[in-house]
Amino acid sequence: MHLSELRAKIPEQLYTILEKDINELRPAQEKAVRAGLLEGKNLLVCTPTSSGKTLIAELAALSTIISGKGKAIYIVPLKALASEKYNDFRKRYGHIAKVALSIGDMDSADNYLSEYDLIITVSEKLDSLIRHYAPWISMAKVIIVDEIHLLNDPVRGPTLEVLITMMRQLLKNTQVIGLSATIGNPQELAGWLDAELVYDEWRPVRLLKGVYLDGEIEFVE
């Protein structure tokens, strides 16, 4: 699918930014569009690293923001990753959307975030914001959960599971997009999220498996 096929489906401001670097969508991105990404459908995207998952999230988030439908929240597992995403998104989209980073004080509602469009945060912080009744959360129309396979993590998993459950109860008409490169039970997780499963094995660089011994690698066919 060529990017030009999305011109009528996404805001012109977003299209102008994307066309500078993208001519054709990657397989997972095309599958996500066909599965209802731009129509507000919940999606679980399970594809290899560097296969284009982040752009799927960006398409949903920025389309929603620019069209005036509401805010987008991007949840990542680590503060360092949140800072990285914040810098990337602000550099690319800062002139068309207000991007904020919220990873600090766990005892604050961060009311200033009501002035921002795209909020990058970690699950523990968002959980705290909900418990402090942050009023702007009701304005969120897209929730992106990066590394959603961490639901299975004994430390972060329970918080993330409760967080997703609360968000779905509080925000009935909000689109949820889960992203992961490794999910052992994608169909089951997609069912729990009431989401369409976007599964693809394409990767930009071929992955080879082999055994290293005495300075030589024997690759498995």
Mean pLDDT over all positions: 92
Q: Strand-and-helix sequence, N→C?
A: HHEHEHEEHEHEHEEE
Number of strands: 9
CATH architecture: 3-Layer(aba) Sandwich
Query: What percentage of amino acids are in beta strands?
Result: 15-25%
- What is the count of DSSP helices, taking H or I runs of 4+ residues? 7
| CATH homologous superfamily caption | P-loop containing nucleotide triphosphate hydrolases
User: What number of domains?
Assistant: 1
Largest sheet, if any?
7 strands, parallel
Compact overview of the structure:
The protein has 221 residues and is an alpha/beta fold.
Describe this protein with a few key phrases.
221 residues, single chain, two-stranded antiparallel ribbon, globular, Rossmann fold, 20% strand, alpha/beta, 7-stranded parallel beta sheet, 9 strands, 7 helices
What does this structure look like?
A hairpin with a 2-residue loop joins strand 8 and strand 9. This protein has a single domain, classed as P-loop containing nucleotide triphosphate hydrolases (Rossmann fold), CATH 3.40.50. The relative contact order is 0.18. It has a 7-stranded parallel beta sheet with strand order 3-4-2-5-6-1-7, sandwiched between helices. A two-stranded antiparallel sheet has the order 8-9. The model has no long low-confidence stretch (mean pLDDT 92). The chain is of the alpha/beta class and 221 residues long. The chain is globular. It has 7 helices and 9 strands.
